[in-house]
Amino acid sequence: MDPQFNTLSASLKLLILMLQILDRLLNVGEQGHMALLGHSLAAYISVLDRERLRKLTTRILSDTTMWLCRLFRYENGSACFHDDDRDGLVKVCRLVINARYQEYASEGYTVLSSKQPIIYQSASCRPGLAQHLCTQLGLPLSSLCTVPCNTVFGSQHQMDVALLEKLIKEDKEAGKLPLLLIANAGTPGAGHTDKLGRLRDLCDQYSLWLHVEGVNLATLALGEVTSAIMAATRSDSMTLTPGQWLGLPAVTAVTLYRHEDPALSLAAGLTPSQPVDKLRALPLWLSLQHLGHSGVVQKFRHATSLVTSREGSVEGFCAGEKEVLDAFNRWLGEQLAQLVPTSGVDVVELEEEGTCVRFSPLVTAAVLGTQQEDVEDLVVKLMEVVPVMDSTLCLIQDFREQTHRHSPSLRYIEEHSWPGLGAVRYEPQADGMDEIRRKQELEKINTELLKKLQELDTDIIFSSGSEFGREEDCIFVGMVTEDVDVCELVDTIAALGRDIVESGRLLENMTEVVRKGILEAELQLQKANEEKLIEEGMLRQLPLVGSVLNWFSPVQSSIKGRTFNLAAGSLDSTEVTYSTKAQAGKLSLQDAPTSSSKRLPGQRLFQRSGAGSDSISETSSIGQAEETTMERSITESSSIQPPISPAALETPSDTAGDVITEKIQGSFEQVPSQVEAEEPTKEMQPEGQEVKQSSR
C-alpha cells in the first residue's frame, strides 16, 4: 500500500480520537462532529498529489451538487459553495453582467455607461445586502432600485408586483438595462414569501434574472410544498443555508443556479478553478452522507411542526403609543428568551409593525435542539407575562395623573423606551441654590428614595433605569399587576421623598442651631454669674469664707435654669419643667398613606383588597374591635408616656458653664421620665408648639 495513504490513515485515526474528545467537551452532537471532521479531512486531503486530489474533489463536488438539487427540487442546476451567504448573489450578478454585456470581458466597466444596469430588490430584503452588492460589483447606488411592498392590497411584506412592472418600464424608457430581481421566500423579519409565480412571469417578459433567497426554501425538501414556495424552483438561482437549517457548525452556504455557458460561470467565479477550492463542499458532503435524505427531511418536518403546535390564546394589548409598545415587545422578547432559552425566540425590528417577537424554528430549532416541550413551555410563559404587560399599559395613564397630583415636588418623566409603569423624579424647592448644588441635591434625594423603595415589601421593581432613558436622577417603576393601588403607590413615593428632604434639612441646620445655642447659653451663664455675684456679695465667693457664711446663713438663689430647644434654637426657662415635674414632647406625625397600615394578613404593599369578600369583612371587623379595646385601655390608664422627638428634649442649665455646655451637646441622648397626669386624654398640638401638663 502507498506509504502516503498509510500516513494519512494514521493521521485520520488520531484526528477522529481528538474530535471525539472535543465532542464530549463542546457537546456539538454527532452531526456537528461530522461537519467538523470534514474541515479537518479537507486539510489532509489537500496534501495529496494533484491527480488524485482532482479526482477526489470532483467526485465530492458533483455528488454534493446532485444531492442538493434533488433534495430541493432544483433540476439541472449547478452549485457554488461560499462562506459568506451574500457572495453567491455577487457572483450571480457578475454572471448576468457578462451575459448581457457582450464586450464586458474586454472593455470592463466602460461598457456599463451606455446602459446603466439596474438591480431590483424588495423593501423587505435583509439590511445591507444592496450596499454589499454595489461595493463588490463597483456599481453606483443609483443602480439599485428598492421596490415597495403592498400597502393596500395583500401583505405589507410582499413586493408590489404592479409597481415593479411600472418601474421596469420607466427604466427601459430612460435607456437603462433591467438586469436582476431579488425575491424573498421568507423575509428576514416576518418570514413572508413574495408572489414568486407572478414575478417569474414578469422576469420572463422583460428578460430579468430571478434570484430567490429565504428560510422558507427549506420546505422544498418536504413531501407537501405550497404553490407559493414551489414557484421558487423556476428561479434562475437561489441561495440556501443548509448549515443553519440543519444545525451544522462551520458549513458553507450554497447557491444553486442554471446557466448553459460554463465559460461565463468560470469568469464570474461560480465554478472553482482550483481543486482545493472544491473541498469547501466536503463538510456538507459528510453531513449529508451521515443524515441521509430521510434524516434531512425529518429535521425540516420537526421544525415546521413546532410552529403549528401552539395552544391557547392571548388577548391583545391595550392601545398605546407605538414607541411604548415597541419597548414592551422588546421586554417581552428578552423575558421569553431568558425563561425558555431553547425556544430560539428573538426580537426583530419591522418597518411598519415596529418591534416584534419572532419565533422561527426553521432557523433555530436544529441548532438549539428545540423540542415540543419547549414550545409548550413558551406558550405557558407567554400566558403569564402578557397579562402583566396588559395591566401595566392600562395603568400608565392613572400613574401619570396621580403623579401630577403631587406636583411640583413629584414630577412625571416622559420616557417611552421604559417597559414599565413609568418614571418619576422628586424635585424639592431649591430657592437661592445654584445649578450645580441643585443637581447634587436631586441626585442625593432620589438615590436615597430609590433605596427606600427597593426595601419595601412589594413585588414591584424599582430601578434607576439609566440604560433606558436620557433623563438622570429618576426612579423607574416596573411592571405591575391589575390589583395594584396606583394612588397608594404614588402617595408612598411622595411621602418618602418628603421625609428624606425634611431629614436632610434638619441635619443641615443642626450644627448651626447648636452652635448658636451654645453661644447664647454662655452669654446667659455669664449674666447669671454676674447677678449671683451682686446678690451674694464678694465674701461668699471666697472658698473658705464663703463656706462658713453659707453654713451660718444659707442663701436662697433666685437664678433660674435654662433648657435648650433644638427645634426653635432658643434657650427657655426651666421653671415650667420644675413646677410640673415633667417634660413635654412633641408628637412626630408620619406623613404616609394610611391605607398601607390597614393591609390584611398576607396582603402585599400597594395591593388592593377584594371588595365584598366575607373573609375581608370579618378581618376588618375584628381589627376595628381590637382598635376600640386598645383606645379604651389607653384612656383609662393613669400614666402615659408620649413619644419624644429630639426637638423637645430639655436640659437644665443651672450649673457651671462647662457643665451646661456638655449637657446641651449631649441632650440628644437623654431619656425622658414617665409623665404623670391626672387628665388621661390630651388634644394633640400642632408641630412647633409645646404641650403643657400640670400635676395639680
From TrEMBL:
In terms of InterPro entries, this protein maps to: GrpII_AminoAcid_Decarb, PDXDC1-like_2nd, PDXDC1-like_3rd, PyrdxlP-dep_de-COase, PyrdxlP-dep_Trfase, PyrdxlP-dep_Trfase_major
Query: Which coenzyme or cofactor does it need?
Result: pyridoxal 5'-phosphate
Q: Where is the PDXDC1/PDXD2 second domain?
A: 321-393
BP term (GO), one: carboxylic acid metabolic process
Could you list this entry's UniProt keywords, alphabetically sorted. Decarboxylase, Lyase, Pyridoxal phosphate, Signal
* Disordered: annotated span: 587-696
TM segment ranges: none
Pfam families given for it? PDXDC1-like_cen, PDXDC1-like_cen2, Pyridoxal_deC
- MF (Gene Ontology): carboxy-lyase activity; pyridoxal phosphate binding
Instruction: State the signal peptide span.
Output: 1-24
User: Which residues are in the PDXDC1-like third domain?
Assistant: 402-504
Compositional bias annotation for Polar residues: 610-627
Which SUPFAM superfamilies does the record associate with it? PLP-dependent transferases (SSF53383)
The lineage's top-level taxon is Eukaryota
What is the similarity comment for this entry? Belongs to the group II decarboxylase family.
What is this protein's record name? Pyridoxal-dependent decarboxylase domain-containing protein 1
Q: Which organism is it from?
A: Amphiprion ocellaris (Clown anemonefish)
Its lineage opens with: Eukaryota, Metazoa, Chordata, Craniata, Vertebrata
